[in-house]
Design a protein that fits this description.
- With about 400 residues, this protein is of the alpha+beta class.
- The protein contains 13 helices and 19 strands.
- About 35% of the residues lie in helices and about 30% in strands.
- Strand 12 and strand 13 form a beta hairpin.
- This is ATP-grasp domain-containing protein.
- Keywords: ATP-binding, Ligase, Nucleotide-binding.
Amino acid sequence: MTTLMILGARMAQLPLIRTALEDGFTVVSVDPDPQSPGHTLAHAAHTCDLADADACIELAKQHRISGVVTLGADYPMSVLAQICDGLGLPGPQPDSVYCTIDKAAMRRAIGGHLHYEISTTADAIRAFREIEAGVVIKPSVSSGGRGITIFPNQTAGDLVQRAFARAAGLSRNGRAILEAYIEGPEFSVETITAGGETTVLAVTEKETSGPPYCVELAHCQPSKISPADYSALADEAVRGLRLLGVDDAPGHTEIRLTASGPMIIEAAARMGGGFIASHLTPLSTGIDMMRAAIAIALGQVPDLRPRFARGAASRFICPPAGYVRNATGLEKVLTDPDCIEADLYVTKGDQIRPLRDATDRVGHVITSGPTGSAAEKAARRLANEIQLEVTPMIV
């Protein structure tokens, strides 16, 4: 039986683990949290730091794995590439993965807007003054949108200092990036690259909370843009992945469509999180991105044929910060014919943190419809059905 190692076993990885099990693979899960729900599903579960390449490679050898995959997070990608390289397995190479997870290296590879690598408060203030416009400050190495602060206009230096401290504190190398802020709606381009050829599967339209944190609130496929804009976004994603050297891997490239054309924010050699790869892409196109990623990891040719053109959308539940007094509406939403999936991650008495990044979202709904607009409308309606009564936090 073919053995597949899955890096990560938390809630976000469950669709990937279940898919592998459905297809008859022996699943080895690796995650630092022994309570991760995916561990209970896997044939073999290991509690291990996903940054410990030597330990993970040893586990891969022990289980004689045929491939290694992950879903929706940058954190395991360095080890994934090292496993592939060390064991001669199909997958992205360490150098290209490094360029996707280190934001400074990424910016050097693909070019684009003005940026500075900063490691001290003095660096942050100096770079801020040199740009003389809106800026983005973010960790050099992180994931999930953590530590990002956006100032669309010039702002007092003390705020920049605090933003740098936050970003550097959440960066795995202790450094941050300060770059020029670019205006325009945000999208992501979902791709599969195999044998040097990149196939664009979908373009995802996004809604965010706006500055200063721009947390993703909703996703929709297909995007409601012109064919010309679709082609421009797709071409820019392919260009960026080529410059980064990404091959034999899924891709998730975040792009803003500016007045002068598309500009890459970040690119990843992995599937997109937030249900984009696991739910929206197969619901809107019929392409199973997780099975395609598994096929690549096993050295097989992935099936990337679209089977239909429909709409799919997700919307996250993001109430004000406080303590949950009561939650209603989820049961009703789950019975709605437009609902594909819905969940709340909090219950009575739980604390809801201020919305700073994706980890602060407390629930979601996923819908399908004949068009992206129809699915988006249904997702908004169903999200509004879920009501959380919250006692505000005393600051």
